[in-house]
Design goal:
295 residues; alpha+beta; Jelly Rolls; 2 domains; four-stranded antiparallel beta sheet; 8 strands; 59% helix; 13% strand
Length: 295
């Protein structure tokens, strides 16, 4: 795939004009990484983003004292990483490692900024994309993350889906076993003592009915299991949103507490300097009078 085509498929650049994409693609620098090679490490100075032409890259948090290596993302051909460095140039928040033979295109921050300074439409397109991402983040944070997803799913079930769940729950109970044993014994007793039995031993009709029942139970149970998997996935997604919102809230509180402490220290230092100055002004006249010779 050509460099311009890779950039055109990137959500960060897909709103740009074709000439801007062509101009940026000419600034891309090609790199090749062997399997297991570290592309950049956490804490390195961020000055570029990368687009994967072929191969795969793993984004991870390196192991620390008691914590193991945490894999954040697995990226394949056409995907990108490190794009925040184009805007802030801050140290990398994670490490990147090639997990196979990989070809990369690097777009450096200086080249990106130089092109934006020359092209007003490109600047507007990038700002629009960043504004859209910020709006999505605000919408995510403004909504309640915690919700009863299981109840919402169950309220929208069709009659057939409710019947499938009822059958699946009934099959896994002692009530169903007792009912089946009761029906079997009653069937055998009726056909043993009736003058004209309607299903003599070996109870072919009863066996046929049991076979039909078993054949219907299988698909109904699988339907219910698939729906339970969907519920578990929805619950996991809700838990992720709750955890993400809590983490952002905690980070915000930590930042605000840090700013509050810094402001408090600055104010205390200012009060101490003021108090020290007042004391010095109050002591100067007394000292002068003590050194003044008597008239």
């Amino acid at each position: 795939m050509l460099p311009a085509e890779l950039l055109a498929e990137n959500p960060l650049f897909d709103t740009m004009a074709t000439e801007d994409i062509e101009a940026l693609s000419q600034k891309l620098i090609e790199h090749k990484a062997a399997s297991g090679e570290i592309i950049f490490s956490k804490g390195d100075t961020g000055a570029s983003m990368y687009v994967i032409r072929s191969g795969s890259v793993e984004i991870f948090l390196p192991p620390e004292k008691d914590s193991p290596r945490v894999v954040l993302r697995e990226l394949r051909s056409g995907q990108y990483f490190g794009e925040l460095s184009l805007f802030d140039g801050k140290p990398r928040s994670a490490s990147a490692e090639a997990t196979s033979k990989t070809e990369l295109f690097e777009l450096r921050r200086d080249d990106f900024a130089d092109h934006l300074s020359r092209s007003k439409p490109a600047t507007i397109a990038i700002l629009s994309e960043l504004a859209e991402r910020l709006r999505e983040t605000n919408n995510l944070l403004s909504q309640r993350a915690a919700k009863h997803v299981i109840k919402e799913i169950e309220e929208n079930l069709t009659l057939g889906q409710r019947m499938a769940d009822k059958v699946a729950s009934m099959n896994g109970s002692w009530g169903f076993i007792i009912m089946l044993l009761t029906a079997t014994i009653s069937w055998a007793i009726l056909n043993a003592f009736m003058p004209k039995p309607f299903d003599q031993y070996p109870y072919q009709f009863f066996n046929f009915a049991l076979a039909v029942l078993v054949s219907l139970q299988g698909p109904l149970i699988v339907m219910s299991q698939n729906r339970q998997t969907m519920k578990d996935r929805a619950q996991a997604e809700t838990d992720y949103r709750v955890n993400l919102k809590n983490e952002i809230g905690i980070e915000t509180l930590i930042q605000e507490m840090g700013a509050f402490r810094a402001e408090t220290r600055n104010r205390l230092a200012a009060l101490e300097r003021t108090d020290r100055g007042d004391r010095s002004h109050a002591e100067i006249p007394a000292g002068e009078s003590a050194l003044r010779p008597p008239v």
